[in-house]
Write a structure and sequence with these properties.
Structural class: alpha+beta
Number of helices: 12
Distance between the termini: 142 Å
Mean pLDDT: 86
Shape: elongated
Low-confidence stretches: 365-369
Strand content: 25-35%
Helix content: 25-40%
Radius of gyration: 39 Å
Largest sheet: 5 strands, antiparallel
CATH superfamily of the largest domain: NusA, N-terminal domain
Strand order of the largest sheet: 7-6-5-8-9
CATH topology of the largest domain: N Utilization Substance Protein A, Chain:P, domain 4
CATH class of the largest domain: Alpha Beta
Number of domains: 4
């Protein structure tokens, strides 16, 4: 049975353009033809199909098993039936192949071939997309806002692929007008019956990390390391950095001349404020750094509580240390992994004359009053 030159040409084109081997299509086509033939014959036949990709030909055979007692007449013969049909050399247990060329089956075969090719192309496209993104989870991707779909926004990340930006992965208050290009973190890739499900994020801490690796050469090269990072996306973040080169200031490298480097990253994240912190393996010094820009007067561990610190600041530093709605101390605690309790320390002052007089009275007042003349 001929599928024609067009079939052969289509197979070669698919193999060249889509990277889908002809063997995959032909094996799928053979399985589909078996199913189509059984429906066509409306029976329980044992069928074998071979497709020649080189010549566009199909051979279709019914198989008959030689048995003593027939249970399935569509696929079994007795020895006597086989001999009657001209198979004189048949023996019990043999399988006889009878090539068939059903009338009007050519149209069904061509239609089946078309459906199989279309489905295999879809499957191949989905597998290509999955492979393309599955190895890049956690990487930075750039995409343009495509459209909103319920609580999710679709982001076009290449010519044939859209990713989902779920509501929980969006920066609060950030606008996503169609056509606007933004950077995202590739969060997850999963296979589904409708194709790969690709999820991106604008809130994950690693988005900020990838942006810093991209914008700051010292981090990209490994001279400066990011040791810890926390975010409250869209408002504020803290990043602990360390330098592997004593001649490189990690904070200066991240901030850049006139703050240019950190400013461009902040603008990409909708104006998110980014604090660059010097990492320290001493938890008390690290906590002191993490509370920046507040100036800490004194810090001590809380012995009765595990991983807990008590931090003292002057009254004029209290609002900076706590931050708006407690954000600064909250991020510092997450960055260091220690609970931080902020206390105000009263400023020391020199004693006045009144203080000295009161001390004298308290120390010796009783005897002074006793020595006074009585009236």
């Amino acid at each position: 049975m001929q599928l024609g030159k067009d079939f052969v040409k289509a197979l070669k084109q698919i193999e060249a353009e889509k990277g889908l081997p002809a063997e995959i299509i032909t094996s799928s086509l053979e399985a589909a033809m078996v199913s189509a033939y059984k429906k066509y014959k409306n029976g329980n036949h044992d069928v074998e199909v071979h497709v020649s990709a080189a010549h566009g030909e199909i051979s279709l055979s019914e198989r008959y098993h030689i048995v003593e007692a027939v249970e399935n007449p569509d696929a079994e013969w007795t020895l006597g039936q086989a001999k009657e049909k001209g198979y004189a050399d048949a023996e019990p247990g043999d399988v006889i192949y009878v090539e068939v060329l059903p009338e009007n089956f050519g149209r069904i075969a061509a239609q089946t071939a078309r459906q199989v090719i279309i489905q295999r192309l879809k499957d191949a496209e989905r597998q290509i997309i999955f492979n393309e993104f599955a190895d890049h989870i956690g990487d930075l991707v750039t995409g343009s806002i495509f459209k909103a779909e319920g609580d999710q926004i679709l982001v076009r990340v290449n010519d044939r692929t859209d990713a989902l930006l779920p509501k929980e992965e969006r920066i609060s208050g950030e606008q996503y007008p169609p056509g606007e290009r933004k950077k995202f973190l590739l969060l997850d890739v999963r296979k589904t019956t409708r194709g790969p499900r690709i999820v991106v994020s604008r809130t994950h801490p690693n988005l900020l990390k990838r942006l810093m690796e991209l914008e700051i050469p010292e981090i990209g090269e490994g001279t400066v390391e990011i040791r810890a990072i926390v975010r409250e996306a869209g408002t504020r973040a803290k990043i602990a950095v360390a330098s592997l080169d004593v001649n490189v200031d990690p904070v200066g490298a991240c901030v850049g001349n006139g703050g240019a480097r950190i400013k461009s990253i902040s603008e990409e994240l909708g104006g998110e404020r980014i604090d660059i912190i010097i990492w320290n393996n001493d938890p008390m010094q690290f906590a002191r750094n993490a509370l920046s820009p507040a100036k800490v007067t004194k810090i001590e561990p809380v012995l009765e509580q595990e991983r807990s610190l008590r931090v003292y600041v002057r009254q004029d530093q209290l609002s900076l240390a706590i931050g708006k709605t407690g954000q600064n101390v909250r991020l510092a605690a997450r960055l260091t992994g220690w609970k931080i309790d902020i206390k105000v320390i009263e400023p020391e002052r020199l004693p006045t004359m009144q203080d000295l007089f009161e001390d004298i009275i308290r120390g010796s007042g009783e005897s002074l009053w006793e020595d006074l003349p009585k009236s």
